[in-house]
Specification:
Elements (H helix, E strand, L loop, with lengths): L1 E3 L1 H10 L13 E7 L17 H21 L4 E5 L19 H13 L9 E5 L4 H12 L6 E4 L4 E6 L3 E6 L2 H11 L6 E7 L8
Antiparallel strand pairs: 1-4, 2-7, 2-8, 3-4, 3-5, 5-6, 6-7
Helix pairs in contact: 2-4, 3-4
Length: 207
């Protein structure tokens, strides 16, 4: 487990065919996996779904189980957490450290401090999957609650997964057909999750 500076992250991602900048994927093909409840910002505020805390975390668990199945099937052993093309560790919401979302904000902030990663930087942390699935779950929750802008990068698979506040996992890949086939097959085990695809940065309807 180690901190990675931006220049190190750029080198590693370039080997997977990604150029880290704000428009690196604009117009590129993408697909995502999302929960059929279609949360928007978590249970704290702003959600289209007026659901309970228990429902939210049950749905998060389903998303996490899918992601762990993907990691296991692909034989992934390590991952990098970093903002990548999103630039900041946290969203730009000025109230992020306050109100109801203070718990997840504080947990992620403590994690970043542990590795001396500044919250306004593009630095990241390289971790092993075996001992750090709880970190993946923390990143997923933080994104679903509209607190976090961190991505998950899996160098072994050359894949960037961008969790969002819509309880979705956006897959950015240069191996679109291959990754799509893997995910579509996996979704047979996860009936509450849905698939959609489109052009990154261009609005498209869920399928």
């Amino acid at each position: 487990m180690s901190k990675l500076k931006l220049n190190e992250i750029k080198k590693i991602t370039k080997e997977s065919g990604f150029d880290i900048n704000e428009d690196m994927m604009i117009g590129a093909d993408y697909f995502d996996v999302y929960h059929y409840h279609e949360w928007d910002g978590g249970y704290d505020f702003g959600s289209w779904l007026s659901g309970t805390r228990r429902l939210f975390y049950a749905d998060i668990k389903e998303m996490m189980n899918f992601l762990l199945d993907y990691i296991s099937l692909c034989g992934i052993t390590e991952f990098i957490v970093a903002p990548l093309h999103r630039f900041n560790q946290f969203t730009n919401y000025p109230y992020a450290p306050y109100m109801e979302i203070k718990d997840i904000y504080s947990e992620i902030n403590d994690f970043l401090k542990k590795y001396q990663v500044r919250k306004h930087s593009q630095s990241g942390v390289r971790l092993t999957v075996e001992q750090n699935t709880h970190i993946i779950e923390m990143i997923l929750e933080g994104a679903c609650r509209a607190v976090l802008d961190i991505c998950l990068f899996f160098p072994e698979q050359s894949i960037i997964i961008e969790p969002t506040h819509h309880m979705a996992l956006v897959f950015l890949t240069n191996n679109f057909i291959k990754e799509k086939e893997i995910v579509i097959k996996l979704l047979e085990k996860h009936p509450n999750l849905r698939y959609c695809e489109g052009k990154y940065g261009v609005w498209s309807e869920y399928s």
